[in-house]
Amino acid sequence: MRFPAGQLRQVAVAALERHGAPPDKAQLQADILIEAELRGLPSHGLQRLPRLLARIDRGLADPHASGTATWSRKSFLSVDGQGGLGPVVLMAAMRKLESAAAIGGIAAAAVRNANHIGMLAYYAEAAARAGLIGIVASTSEALVHPHGGTQAMLGTNPMAVGIPTDSEPFVLDLATSIVSMGKIHNHALRGEPIPAGWAVDAAGRSTTDPEAAKGGAIAPFGGAKGYGLGLGIELLVAALAGSGLAPEVRGTLDDTHPANKGDLLILIDPAAGAGDAATLGAYLDALRSSGPADPNRPVAIPGDGSRARRGRGLSSGVDVPDALFDTLSALAAA
Amino acid sequence: MRFPAGQLRQVAVAALERHGAPPDKAQLQADILIEAELRGLPSHGLQRLPRLLARIDRGLADPHASGTATWSRKSFLSVDGQGGLGPVVLMAAMRKLESAAAIGGIAAAAVRNANHIGMLAYYAEAAARAGLIGIVASTSEALVHPHGGTQAMLGTNPMAVGIPTDSEPFVLDLATSIVSMGKIHNHALRGEPIPAGWAVDAAGRSTTDPEAAKGGAIAPFGGAKGYGLGLGIELLVAALAGSGLAPEVRGTLDDTHPANKGDLLILIDPAAGAGDAATLGAYLDALRSSGPADPNRPVAIPGDGSRARRGRGLSSGVDVPDALFDTLSALAAA
């Protein structure tokens, strides 16, 4: 069914508060889930909330914690999330980084022991709207096999980049897997085969059977290069956050383990550089109006599609499965 | 013919000195070209030297300049390369950044008006060997079309990441194009078709004719994601360096225009973070020994292949076309 975003937000906030989250933290956690729904990314939306509430109930997520942040160096914030809600810990770190980035020109925060931070575009865009360049990366459970390999050894290791322009910010958000595990589950639910090259089964054989793929591993996007990028993120985040490497990571897909993946946030003040926002905006417009391969599909800029979907979602509501809405309503009342 | 690396280096240094480069700068410029040859990357090797010397002769490259570097913020170095040799300007910036990264934990340099900096792995590896994480990105002439587009609107926009471990450093270096323009020229020379999906012709039509592709545009690697990454690099570098955006960039492939692309270097001190190098090294070893798709090809780690080729090149020499060697010898004598 289609629900107004405000109604979904109310239910999500109520459920979080009912499970112990203070109002401000409940609102922030709910906001990122609703933003994912609005942008057409339900894998990072409300379907994650029941598990998060179970994690709170079991003491695996602490809805009061914002993490402890230490300036290990003048421009480097080392954060122990202490089991806090991912968006709460990340946004607390971002607020601290903003002034450091203004002073230093660049500043970074590395975060361990925070729960799932959700859609990375949220942070990249928040940075860009504050006039800063934001670079975000995160790790996850082992779901991706190396290029030329057969075992799940890497996380989906997404990264996001937000860059202010003189109009809407550029917001890139990509996982380094060729597809999300959520999409493979969707194919399994619909009984449809997956394209060759998406995944291997538990024995490491290439498969088009989504059920077999669920127990196997997803390919990196873009062959050796995408694998390299995903591996670079795996190492970079672990090196700085002191978080787990994929084979040991737990806690973003279960309600049985503490979350031990890592997150990295880098802010850069473009005013420290020599470029200008108007030039970037004009270039993006030139890209949008450059020759398309399909005359009916203009060249797209990362973030444009999300922004359009968000606008439609705000005006005409968001589709959420009835069963999920009922579950959330019950959790808000329980 | 196969030449000892030392002999190639001597010829390159002599040619650079003969064209006005001081000994230390000639040695650094020659070193990065020889390192590319050793690693099996001739597109970034000696074949670039004749054009670079022509650029010096025409006043487009200043072999004496190291650039002027300004700390626009405590951790941000704004560099005008003043037409200096790329490696000279970049390594001068890196030396300045190293102490800033030790103090701040993270520091960045954005460089405009430097000549081609060559193989990015050189800088990423130099950072890692100095115990720092190095992230390097660079832009170029418009050679790549957007995903879903038909016109060359983006540079090949390579990036590199170097991360220290307890054994050899992790060194990733990738262009965001699906293939280099050099490889398309090689196919043209050999009269071989290029695979579908590599390029479009000047009219924006998909082509397997390398001659047609030379006047067209190369695809980004990895579809929409690789395009997004390349575009992110395009914007990030221009925003910080104040360098040109691809359609206006000249000077790395010609000997007629000043170089107006940009370069970005970020150094991070892993000692500011909470991870440890031994854990990273053990993880990379686990990856190397994880199940391969082809039993005869173990899972590869970015940088391993280059390192092996470099070792072989140092012991048994480097293949360089006779005509190129003769040209360089003449340029060293002229």
Topology:
2 copies of one chain form a homodimer.
Chain A (H helix, E strand, L loop, with lengths): L1 E2 L1 H14 L4 H16 L10 H9 L10 E6 L2 E5 L5 H19 L1 E7 L8 H9 L3 E6 L20 E5 L6 E5 L6 H10 L8 E2 L5 E2 L2 H5 L2 E2 L4 H19 L20 E7 L8 H12 L15 H13 L1 E2 L2 H12 L1
Helix pairs in contact in A: 1-2, 1-11
Write up this protein:
The structure is a homodimer of 334-residue chains. In chain A, the strands form three sheets. A seven-stranded mixed β-sheet of chain A has the order 2-3-4-11-5-6-7, sandwiched between helices. A three-stranded antiparallel β-sheet of chain A has the order 9-8-10. A two-stranded antiparallel sheet of chain A has the order 1-12. With 334 residues, chain A is an alpha+beta fold. In chain A, 41% of the residues lie in helices and 15% in strands. Chain A folds into two domains: 2-60 and 319-333, Malate/L-lactate/L-sulpholactate dehydrogenase, four-helix barrel (Hypothetical Oxidoreductase Yiak, Chain: A, domain 1), CATH 1.10.1530; 68-272, Malate/L-lactate/L-sulpholactate dehydrogenase, NADPH binding domain (Ribosomal Protein S8, Chain: A, domain 1), CATH 3.30.1370. The first copy, chain A, contains eleven helices and twelve strands. In chain A, helix 1 runs antiparallel to helix 2 and helix 1 (5-18) crosses helix 11 (322-333). In chain A, strand 2 (68-73) and strand 3 (76-80) form a beta hairpin. At the A-B interface, helix 4, strand 4, strand 7, helix 8 and helix 9 of A face strand 4, strand 7, helix 8 and helix 9 of B.
